[in-house]
Specification:
It is a single chain. With 189 residues, the protein is an alpha/beta fold. It is built from four helices and twelve strands; from the N terminus they run βαββββαβαβαβββββ. Helix content is 20%, strand content 26%. The chain has a domain of 132 residues: 3-Layer(aba) Sandwich (Rossmann fold). It is globular and about 50 Å long.
């Protein structure tokens, strides 16, 4: 659910989370909301973790190639000092940050800022992907995005890993992952 002008809280900040599987449009939705804030002449700053270097070193990039300039950071704490003058803060791929991102988003919202966070809510095994569950619990507004299952065409909420690697974090795109529904998703051996 996007926050409309009529629904927006007055004189306080808040957290919006866009969560879902890969290829469900999370970054696309994040970019759309941030562009609207820019059009409204709000001060926007965007962050992405350094580990996410799939499409660009210094932009958030959706799978359908929409882009916005971003600040690449190594740790979530950097967001606080780099967003002092911002009214709206965008954070992409939040699942790659440690648990401190939750308190940081809370602090920013408590300081009167609109914080929009996007990330995977489950890993490739279908297990909740921290810190996303905690961000979902802290958020005032939540959007769950769905993709299309590449096997059967049903709505997909799982990320299927196509490569053999048991590490929880393996950065990749269509070469390594695809969207699957509950029925077609399986956990690799």
């Amino acid at each position: 659910m996007e926050v409309t002008q009529q629904q927006a809280p007055k004189d306080i900040g808040w957290i919006e989370v866009v969560a879902g599987c890969m290829f469900s449009g999370k970054t696309e939705e994040l970019i759309r909301r941030l562009r609207r804030a820019q059009i409204a002449r709000q001060k926007v700053v965007i962050f992405k973790p350094r580990i996410d270097n799939r499409y660009s070193a210094n932009q958030i990039v959706s799978h359908n190639t929409q882009t916005l300039e971003s600040i690449v950071i190594d740790k979530a704490e950097d967001i606080l000092s780099l967003s002092k003058d911002a009214q709206v803060i965008g954070i992409d791929e939040a699942q790659f940050f440690d648990m401190s991102i939750v308190g940081i988003c809370d602090k920013l919202a408590n300081d009167g800022k609109r914080v929009i966070v996007a990330g995977l809510d489950q890993d490739y095994r279908g297990v909740p992907f921290e810190p996303m569950p905690q961000l979902l619990a802290a958020a005032e507004y939540i959007t769950k995005t769905l993709a299309i299952c590449v096997v059967c065409g049903n709505p997909a909420d799982r990320t299927q890993r196509k490569i053999a690697n048991a590490d929880r974090v393996v950065v990749g795109a269509a070469d390594s992952y695809e969207a699957r529904c509950r029925k077609c998703h399986y956990i690799p051996d």
